[in-house]
Amino acid sequence: MPPSLKCVTEIRLAPRLSGAPIADHALLSDCHCAALVTIDGSVDWLCFPRFDSPSVFGRLLDADAGHWSIRPADHYTVSRRYLDRTLVLETTFSCPAGTVVLTDALAMGPDNRGHALGKGAPRLMIRSVTCTEGTVPVEVSYAPRPEYGLLRPLLSTVDGGVTARGGAEWLVFSAPVSMDIAGSTATAHLPMSAGQTHYFALHRSTLEEEPAWIWSQAQLADRLDATVEAWESWSEMHQHYQGPWRELVHHSGRVLQGLTFQPSGAIVAAATTSLPEAIGGERNWDYRFSWVRDASFTMEALWVAACPDEASDFFEFMTTAAAGSIGPGTPLQIMFGVGGEHDLSERTLPHLAGWRDSRPVRVGNGAWVQQQIDVYGELLGAAHRLADQITEVDDETLAFLTALAESAAQRWREPDQGIWEVRGEPRHFLYSKVMCWMALDRAIKLAGALRAGHRVDAWRQIRDEIWQTVISEGWNDKAGAFTQYYGSSDLDAANLMMPIVGFLPADDPRMLATIDAIADRLTDDRGLVYRYSTEAGVDGLAGTEGAFLLCTFWLAQALAMAGQVSRARAVFERAAAYTNDVGLLAEEVDTESGELLGNFPQALSHIGLINAAWAISQADSTA
Ligand SMILES: OC[C@H]1O[C@H](O[C@H]2O[C@H](CO)[C@@H](O)[C@H](O)[C@H]2O)[C@H](O)[C@@H](O)[C@@H]1O
């Protein structure tokens, strides 16, 4: 059966573990920050008020780093889904004596530009619990632990809830029943019977902001309804894809929107930090930043859906974030904070045990100082794809886009860390050269809009020189394929992008040989694709990792473009089968166990899913 959103799945629960399987989590987003809720009703990850803020609930990374759970005190089975066309989560607990339904959302803010998902969010998480049948005793446990679990705040009861003070945070918890406080944890036990609904909420402010407050039950009901409507209306406006796996594609679009930081137009790579690429290993990174590459791919994946405002916001963000830092001798920084910050220095948090003891837990990302010359191609690729939708192109943006092309022209011969951000020595990675080719190819196509007609001849000459060099230096007879870097005989799944960006036709014999080599020799026993072989040691890191979902979707896309549609479908379905019960993908899949691995949900995986489905729908329609 083809994979689709498996929305409602019956699960009989084992006892609660810390480090719950990654697939057990569901995403909430208000397009400013994100939360993860486990299948047994616990908020185990919440970073307020931005994606990259320190967590208030961090049980994902350590049993004592904070949580907020609402679940039956009785034995239960559970099923869950997102409400249709939203990122509002509904979890249904079925107990011997009755049923309760939990509805969770990060509240959307009012919008002053007529947008469905606004630029302001009230920094409010809402949870409603309704008994729909019989009688069910419900337990609530609220254990805020700000600053990644470092603080145990002072809790006090107030009329209508509990306040928490500690460090810079001011947290107000609205509750319809009185809470018992023991240390820094508040609990309640509420017997519920059919027809009853209770709303709980967490509101956050800091000392310099307007204080957070207790919300009434009616206010919370209204806010929850408004949030559902905001998502429905965004989906209505943006989701027009009608091809195969429609539900999964639309849902992936919402996940990408949920990873967008509305105030600036930045897009984060994932909602989490330090979910490992191998259990117990050191490959644990903070993804709550806006990579030029990942964000450009996201804009492209959403191009059918993108609104003029969103495309313009994104390019304005990139132009502003990079302002003054691109030009002769100043390479474009490869990633930024969601507010445009440059310094993303990496550090470890030694007080956290890590997900299933995968240490270190890192915040910040050392890749911010790396040289990665692919970024010019990805940004200009997105600009070209979205050219019709970028309405507010000011002179600064035009100059910025032109500077990208000039940088690619000047720097394409330099070695770099490549798309995979290797921490080993810089090399002449093929993918980076192909992206420099793409930068110039797209700049030539955009030359009129860029008012750069006088540069076309020079750009064309360099573009063609890059093409010739990649063809001669990048092919390896021993491997019978294009390989990872000049002179290497190792495969790299990033070379599947060569046909995708139009560098070579997918049915060119060299490309077909590369696609087959990757499908045969760079896959695990399940047929999922690794990004490269870690045995070669090129990435400078210890240990191995799982198969990479984006790369598996690239294989499906390249096969579809080569006209091998039934193979493409099989590969697509193999990868899409790893969506969890609410349609979410992490970065990787554990080769041994088949568990999701790595940060979650990961934009690149959902981008791959959308693009591969699209390519297969195109191949179907031309067959
Ligand atoms: O493999 C080591 C590198 O792993 C991370 O990079 C990966 O995630 C990025 C964000 O999605 C993506 O752009 C990149 O292609 C991936 O390889 C990590 O961010 C790096 O610091 C690390 O060196």
TrEMBL record:
Residues of the Trehalase-like N-terminal domain: 20-183
Sequence ranges assigned to domain GH15-like in this UniProt record: 256-614
GO MF annotation list: trehalase activity
GO biological process: trehalose catabolic process
SUPFAM superfamilies per record: Six-hairpin glycosidases
Name of the featured protein: Trehalase
Organism: Rhizocola hellebori
